[in-house]
Amino acid sequence: MSTTAKSKTLATWLAVLGGTLGAHRFYLHGLKDPFAWLHPLPTLIGLAGVIRMRNLGQDDTVSWLLIPIFGAMISVAMFSAIFIGLTNDERWAQRFGAGQAPQSTGWGPVIGVVVALFLGAGALMGSIAFGGQKFFEWQQEKAAAAAAATALDPSMERLS
What we know:
single chain
C-alpha cells in the first residue's frame, strides 16, 4: 500500500502516453519497481528497428525483426491503460488510495481507455500484419534461392 493516494486518471493517461517506457508503473510503484524497468529496453530496441527501416528501407531484415517488438510494447502499454482505467473505484482505493475513501473518477479514465483501445488494437494489428508479411516474403525468398540452387545443380533435388 502506498503512503500517498494515486490518481487513477493520471495513471491511465501515463500508461497511454508513456506506458512504453513504464511511466505508469514508476508512478504507481516507484523507481524500485523491477517491472517498470523492463519497459524501456524493449521499447528502445523496437524503436531502433523503426529508425533502421526509415534509413535502410523495408528490406532490412534486422528492422523487420525489431519492429514487432515496438508494436508489442505499445500493445502492452495500452493493455495496462485499459486495465488501470477499468479498475473499479473501490478496488483502486484499496490498492492506491492510502486509506482514503473511494472517490468517483469521472470520465478521465474512460476516455483514456477508449484512446488506449484504438492505439493498442492498431499497434497490435499493424505489428502482426507487418511481421507476417515479412515472414512470408522471407519464406518466398528462401524457396526461390533453393529453386535456383536446384536449377544450378540438379543433384541437389534428390537430396531434399
